[in-house]
Amino acid sequence: MDEAVTALTTEECWEMLEQEEFGRIAFRLVDEVHITPINYAVDGRSLLFRSAEGEKLLAIVMGSEVAFEVDHYNDDFARSVVVRGAARLLPEDEAHRAENVPLRPWVAEEKYNVVELQPRVVSGRAFHLSRPWLHLRPHD
C-alpha cells in the first residue's frame, strides 16, 4: 500500500508549477498577513505575475517575504506546492520577461507591474485520498 502522504521532489514541484497557472500568494503588510489569488507563469526557476497598485504591490516594494501555494486534486489524489522567498518589482528594462512566458490576464483590469518571486524554498506533498466518509453514504 502506498504512503498516504509523500514529499514531492524539487523537480516534481517545478513540473507542477509549470502545469498550473493559478495560485495564492501570502504576504505581510505591517502587522497583517494577507493572502490573495494570482495567475502566474514560470520563468526559469522563478515565478512571474502582474500586479495592479495596492497592498500586494506595496508589501513587495517594502521587501516583504512571501509565500505562494498552488494545488491540484481529483477524486484519488491531491498535490500541493509551496514556494517561499523574496518578491521584487521588475524594473522597466526587465519587465519584458513577462511577454516571453504564458502570463496572460484573467480579468480586464490593466496590470502593468511585473513581479518576480525568487524562491528560497520550494516544497510539495502528494496525498493519496481515501475519503472514508464517502463509503458511509448510501448508494442508489
Your description of this structure?
By secondary structure, the protein is mainly beta. The chain has helices at 10-19, 55-61, and strands spanning 5-7, 22-29, 32-39, 41-43, 46-51, 65-73, 77-89, 113-128. The relative contact order is 0.26.
Please provide the count of β strands. Answer: 8
Shape: elongated
Percent of residues in beta strands?
over 45%
Question: Could you spell the SSE succession in H and E letters?
Answer: EHEEEEHEEE
Span from first to last CA? 29 Å
Low-confidence stretches: none
The CATH class is Mainly Beta
Q: Which properties best describe this structure?
A:
Pyridox_Oxase-rel, elongated, 140 residues, Split_barrel_FMN-bd, 12% helix, single chain, Pyridoxamine 5'-phosphate oxidase family protein, mainly beta, Pnp Oxidase, Chain A, 8-stranded antiparallel sheet
Compact overview of the structure:
It comes from Nocardioides piscis. This protein is mostly beta strands and 140 residues long. Helices cover 12% and strands 47% of the residues.
What is the topological layout?
Blueprint: E1 5-7, H1 10-19, E2 22-29, E3 32-39, E4 41-43, E5 46-51, H2 55-61, E6 65-73, E7 77-89, E8 113-128
Antiparallel strand pairs: 1-8, 2-3, 2-6, 4-5, 5-8, 6-7, 7-8
